[in-house]
Amino acid sequence: MTKMPTSAAYEISTDPARLDAERIHRWLSTDAYWALGRARDVQDRAIAGSLNFGVYDAASGELVAYARVVTDHATFAWLCDVYVDPGARGKGLGTELVVAARDHLAPLGLRRMMLATEDAHGVYAKVGFKPLENPGMWMTLDLQRPS
Fold first, then answer.
1. What is the spatial distance between Cα 11 and Cα 54, in angstroms, rounded to a whole number?
2. What's the pLDDT at 8?
């Protein structure tokens, strides 16, 4: 478990025992454009196979934001499922969460961390993310057939 400093009112932790999987699933499956309708068992498997970051209210211990990183801990990381509860937005927690993930992974010497976003480019740019320099070299393989 790793605890990272944040503002006095919140703390960030990678302790998987602290995660509220039901809340995370509700947030993502009902309010996150990239995960709408995601099944609970799929979300639980995603959590189990990832490095997870939770932001907790220091007074109540309540989970107020979440992110996960898919990584081999050696060469590559993919930041995904970054979500801040609507009641906790506007306090910079999303940026603090991404900084915590970046700083947690920095000592590993990864070559790159990637993410995809439709609408939060400015948030991630503040932390150092930038558009792909050579997007033509990247490819994708869709494994699920369209419905």
1. 8
2. 80
